[in-house]
Specification:
The complex is a heterodimer of chains A (116) and B (115). Chain A is mainly beta and 116 residues long. Chain A has no helices and twelve strands. In chain A, β10 (88-96) and β11 form a beta hairpin. Chain B has 115 residues and is mainly beta. Classes of the chains: A mainly beta (116), B mainly beta (115).
Chain lengths: 116, 115
């Protein structure tokens, strides 16, 4: 069975600093997708970034980038120039490349607090 | 384009009752998935519907059921409510089913409290 582990329950950072959130996963699949979702206190889950496992190049979206290490099954999220609006719970998620469906498997989440 | 809409936002029920939650996907999205979020268990997949058919199911008891209508709107039902069913229920829609590359867009959720 696939599992996703986020080892940092809580993190805090000052505005403008850089922070890295960790995620490891376990799967025997070769083709899959990894995601980071953000859930602010308003609770709306928002996609931050997506990585396709067959692509070696790390995905980037503005201030957000990932470090994808397929052999190590590691998928960390780096947030540069942190902003107050980045305060949220961040979930790492995995889904198989599977015609039978698209169930997301989530980690337990990391609560990130950005302060001024 | 309107996002994923879930109604109601909040529900309070008592043990033994049943409840129905509704989800309207983004226009053009045919796949709808449901997730349960609790502080203890985190986010867990309930089921996925595509073209009115349940295509995938998580590890939940039969008290949890759902359906999808021809307009892709989906409902989930929980019968004989238990205290442990108190949770945030999230619905997500995606443009096409059958390929995990499709991004799931989430609604704001329904907060269910069972007393």
């Amino acid at each position: 069975a696939q599992t996703v582990t986020q080892s940092q329950p809580e993190m805090s950072v000052q505005e403008a600093e850089t922070v890295t959130l960790s995620c490891t996963y376990d799967t025997s699949e070769n083709n899959y997708y990894l995601f980071w979702y953000k859930q602010p206190p308003s609770r709306q889950m928002i996609l931050v970034i997506r990585q396709e496992a067959y692509k070696q190049q790390n995905a980037t979206e503005n201030r957000f980038s990932v470090n994808f290490q397929k052999a190590a099954k590691s998928f960390s999220l780096k947030i540069s120039d942190s902003q107050l609006g980045d305060t949220a719970m961040y979930f790492c998620a995995f889904t198989r490349f599977n015609q039978a469906g698209t169930a997301l498997i989530f980690g337990k989440g990391t609560t990130l607090s950005v302060s001024s | 384009k309107a996002g994923v809409t879930q109604t109601p936002r909040y529900l309070i029920k008592t043990r033994g009752q049943q409840v129905t939650l509704s989800c309207s996907p983004i226009s053009g999205h045919r796949s709808v998935s449901w997730y349960q979020q609790t502080p203890g268990q985190g986010l867990q997949f309930l089921f996925e519907y595509f073209s009115e058919t349940q295509r995938n199911k998580g590890n939940f008891p039969g008290r949890f059921s759902g359906r999808q209508f021809s307009n892709s709107r989906s409902e989930m039902n929980v019968s004989t409510l238990e205290l442990g069913d108190s949770a945030l229920y999230l619905c997500a829609s995606s443009e096409m089913g059958g390929s995990s590359k499709n991004i799931q867009y989430f609604g704001a959720g329904t907060r269910l409290s069972v007393l």
